[in-house]
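ok trying this again, last paste got cut off
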Amino acid sequence: MHSFQVIRNGCGSMATETVQRRRPQQSHATLGNGGAASNGETSKEIERKNNLKNDPLARLVHKPQDSLFSSSSGWTNYRGFFNLSMLLLVVSNGRVALENLIKYGVLVSPLEWVRMALADFSFTNCPNVFLVLASNGVILTVFITEKLLERGLLPELFAAVFYPLLICFHLIVPVGVTLIHQGNPLYSSGALMIFVIESLKLVSYMHVNYWCRCAVRAAKNAAAAGKKGDEKIAEGEQSCGVASLIDRRCDPICFQLTSSDALRLYPGTLTLSNLYYFLFAPTLCYELVFPRSPRRRKSFLIKRTAELIFLTFLMLALIQQWVVPLVKNSMAPFSDMNISRMTERVLKLAVPNLLIWLIFFYTLFHSALNLLAEVLCFADREFYRDFWNAESIQYFWKTWNIPVHRWALRHIFMPMMRNGYSKKSAIVVVFFVSAFFHEYLVSVPLHMFRLWAYYGMMAQIPLSFVTDHIVKGGRAGDFGVTQYRRVALSHSRSAHVHSDVRSRLVPHSLRVE
């Protein structure tokens, strides 16, 4: 009788059976109590439990339920397959590493890294150092211009014309020097990266100070239309407000900056120390007051420094041991345009390139930026988010590089939206600017203009449409799709780049014949 009752309950309430099947531990624990009565149990329930324990016919074997792989089962715990995939990944890459060692031996030579770094370095033959030092002239020009604009000695129209020309000059001069001077592409890349970062920071500095000037003018107009207060009282309130804001910088909970706070701070923030702190801070977005940490942690500094040194060494070792032989063996297929062999080479390069990219991401965005932030007591440490869980291209670009995302959102996307442009137009402009700077940092140091980086970035726009509206996220649009896009574009480009500049980037002693 109990058996039929259970069957009828199973057919009538599938959810109850699913819960019972998903939590077998609870059922066994309940049955393991024997005849002991628990709270609220009747004598009939105790008798039924005893029958289930002692009578084998009373225990049902079959009940309505779905297989775990069926979507209707509601089962989502596949962690064991994830662990198996990680094991297979380690084993397969371990086999490739062992094959590399057997075939080529140990190629890692730190002395060769030093020789390569110092081969073309000299103060007379390395204009990159002088370029970076000369960039302070542009920084001081912006600072002086802002002081003149704040005092009303220059019109806003002058800034609207002068600042774009100044930023273009700041970006074009290093290009001309790099193209004329046949130097080491590594040094040129580093110098151009500094110029790009300075340009983005200066644009943010100009925008924020312009917004402050607009807010000051609006406040003066409102005050002129209303009643005028006592100037001494207003001055005292302003000084007290500034002091309280400075004290609140170290409190991440209370730190908020409103428009009225900005009016009290500006133009007191127009100082060289404030500007250079922003230029060295690990952010691209300028603010009148940055959140500050109360102290520097020595243990944190030691950990980040050790990570920075070790991971940099590891990346260089992987490039010399793994990537250089693969690039050397890829020359013939790319020269002969053998499609099958080219595909095989690109896929083979994908594994070390992806591994090096992940190590580079951790080294830069976690170790280096956290180290710099700790030294400067910069409290905002959100340099990245969970980009590894990205189910679309847009989410990936919003989470993997937070400083650049914040800059593009604040100084390109939102101003265009406020001026009546559509969201699609703003997205296209954001990707265009990103594509321009990617090509700027790839083509100029290598003295080649093939637009690989530009096309790769602009291709993100249709790919974003596919992941958002066709694939619609989920497992199919998960991080594997994003990584495949990144790997395919980067390695097809890297194979082409190495085929043209190998003689300059890889010294003869490091090549594997």
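PB: full thing came through this time. The mean pLDDT is 77.
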